[in-house]
Amino acid sequence: MSAGDQKNGGDKPEVAVAEVWPEVERAECLARGAALKWASGVFCRPEHLERLSQYKKRESQRTSSVHTRLKSMVQSYLEGVGWGLEQLREARVELKEVSHALRKAGLESNRNGDGVKSLERLREVSVNHCQLLAAVSNLPRLYSVRSMVLETERLVESRRLLEAHARLMDLECWQDDILWQLQGAAGTAGGALSPEDQELVTKYFSGVGQLVEALGKELWAVVSSALALARQNPTPFVSAVRIVEREEALDRALLEERGGSSRPLPLGRPRCWRACFFQVLDEAVSARFRSVSYLHTRGPGLAGHLSALQHGIMADLATVRHLLEHCVPPHYRLTGAYLRASHRCLHAHLAQVSSWDLESGEIFAVLNWVLHIYNSPDMMGQPELVAEMEKEELGPIISTEGLEQLQNKYVQSVRKSVSEWMHKALQVELQDWQRDQEPDTDHEGFYQTSLPTIITQMLEENARVALMIGVSLRDQTIQMGLYEMENLLNRFREALVEFGKEHRRNPSNNNNKFYLHYLLASISNCIILKKSTESLQQQQSSRSAAQFSRTPPNPLAALDRAVRRACRLVMDQLLLDLQPLLPGLLTRPWLVQGDPTPKLCRVLERHLELYGRVRPPCRACRRRLSG
To answer: Distance between CA 555 and CA 492 in Å, rounded?
Structure first.
């Protein structure tokens, strides 16, 4: 064979490999290209060819190392494949053995089918025997159920609650055992308890359900009357608590025992009598609140009603803390439960009272009770109760919004009363102006009437009463009073104008004989009211002005307008008195005899004397005129 033939023959396997795995050819091309690139970089000069043998030796060592790793890896893969094939052969043999054994078992089962049918009769006899055995074993209990029910009823009626509950627990246990035995016998027979059997048992033990209701009724009657009877005989209450705890323990045990089993819970379980206990206690507290007489609650009787509430709550709290708390387990926290119930009832009751159309005195009684009496040491401010209330996180008995609404109602009610009294005082003042006598004088000899005294006392008294509730209410009351005083002074100025017009229309009227005197008294009244207004404004806190959205009142400006109007009327009266004498001045008779001058002096002296009855600073006018 020629060298060319050998070459062609040697290339056939490579071509076949390339056809089967084209990736090999591509990888070989990439390798050749990389090798050429590397060789061109390393042997770029002739002197570098001297190291060709070193590179060749190193590359041959690297190639042999790679071949060795490949061979070891292929060898490990081949060993794993061989082990897997061996496992498959062993599994095949075992499957054959198992299928052969199953075939033999099937043949044996077919041959024994007739023998199983003959045991059906034996199973029925066994089931009947179990039922008869359960019936015979339960006969004494079944015969005694009627008598047990009657005896338990007598114990409940006589309030021997612990004994009655023990008998009731026995009856419930018998009923549950019988139902379970019947259900077990039915399950053995391949079925479930029939509705007829279950109805029969339930009907036979129907007295048990009635006993549960009767006992619960007696228990809740004892719990609801615990506050009233604790001082006399707490024994029934203790018995009731023990029964409640028994029931809770029984509910818990049955839930743990049968929670994951097929046996159902007895009828009526869980009873949750502890929750019912606290519910009845809440209803008892509500009933105690309702027992406080609502007669005469409106009007003056509201303060007495709130006082009765206070005494009733504190008496019940003392009973709970010192008597009932020792009759229950610590985790009941009976004082906290009573505080929650009473707080809820108080909140609802005070909300109802606040919704009424109350007078200012009634609103004051409610606010004073809520803000001061309820949290005082005489009531809920006791250290022990404060700690308990903090645990319960009860909050206020009237919300902040409700408190603000109540205060606003108080201010509006006082405003209505103040407006009425100011109107009446102004009417009395107008009647005094028509009197045929001089105005009254104070201890300093200044003219005055009853108007400033009435207004000042009324506003100061309202501010003092409101301060008993709080600074905020005092500021609102003063603000309201200043508004009303401004309105009064505006009406007062209009009355002065009308008074002056009437006098000018009929100056010779006898009723106007003391016109000037009452004008001067009005000026003195305004000066007194100014001092009262400034005193009220000083009493207001610095933040009160920012709390009112309306334009702030300005009674001082109204006072200034009223004083100016009165002074103007006084000056008009002086000019009116001087008017008949002024034409005689600068005439020949005046130069010769000086006739009008004495009359003018007498008029001025009379006016100056009257001006001396005016309070300063308006009295300064007299000094200027006399000068």
So the answer is: 12
Query: How confident is the model at residue 271, as a pLDDT?
Result: 84
pLDDT at 435 over 90: no
Residue range 482-525, pLDDT digits in tens: 999 999 999 999 999 999 998 888 776 655 688 889 999 999 99
Mean pLDDT of the chain: 81
Q: Which amino acid, 378?
A: D
User: Amino acid identity, residue 63?
Assistant: T
Q: How far is CA 66 from CA 25, 73, 280, 292, in A?
A: 19, 11, 91, 105
Cα gap 216→243, rounded to integer Å = 10
Average pLDDT over residues 323-346: 90
How does strand 440-441 pair with strand 447-448? antiparallel
Evaluate if residue 578 carries a pLDDT over 60: yes
DSSP count for the chain of H helices, then E strands: 23, 2
d(CA 390, CA 485) in angstroms, rounded, equals 45
Long-range contacts of 215-220, Cβ-Cβ distance < 8 Å, separation of 24 or more: 215/156, 215/161, 215/164, 215/165, 215/168, 215/243, 216/273, 216/276, 218/156, 218/159, 218/161, 219/161, 219/243, 219/244, 219/273, 220/276, 220/280
Provide the 8-state DSSP code for 258. H
Which of 299, 153, 334 minimizes the C-alpha distance to 227? 334
Contacts of 473 (CB under 8 A, 6+ apart): 367, 407, 410, 411, 466, 467
Indicate the SS3 state at residue 21: coil
The pLDDT, as a whole number, for residue 409 is 93
The answer to whether residues 521 and 496 touch, using CB atoms and an 8 Å cutoff, is no
User: Distance between CA 502 and CA 509 in Å, rounded?
Assistant: 10
Per-residue model confidence (pLDDT) at position 404:
92
Name the residue among 440, 431, 599 with its Cα closest to residue 528: 440
- Say which residues have a Cβ less than 8 Å from residue 393's Cβ, sequence separation at least 6: none
d(CA 373, CA 398): 14
Over residues 588-618, the pLDDT tens digits come to 676 666 667 788 888 888 888 888 888 887 6
pTM comes to: 0.67
* Mean pLDDT of all residues in 267-286: 87
Give, in degrees to the nearest 5, the angle at Cα 69 between 65 and 73: 170
The Cα 306–Cα 415 span in angstroms is: 25
Burial 407-439 (b: 16+ CB within 10 A, else e): bebbbebbbeebeeebeebbeebbebbeeeeeb
Q: Name the token pair of 381.
A: 């401010």
Secondary structure (H, E, C), 296-307 = CCCCCHHHHHHH
Q: Which residue matches tokens 């009770």?
A: 369
Contact 234, 323 (CB under 8 A): yes
What is 433-474 written as a DSSP string? Answer: HT-SSPPEE-TTS-EE-SHHHHHHHHHHHHHHHHHTT-HHHH
3-class SS string, 188-217 = HCCCCCCHHHHHHHHHHCHHHHHHHHHHHH
| 424-433 tens-digit pLDDT | 999 999 999 9
pLDDT tens digit sequence for 354-363 = 888 888 889 9
505 close to 433: Cβ distance less than 8 angstroms: no
According to the per-residue pLDDT averaged within each range, which of 177-181, 553-557, 623-627 is highest? Answer: 553-557
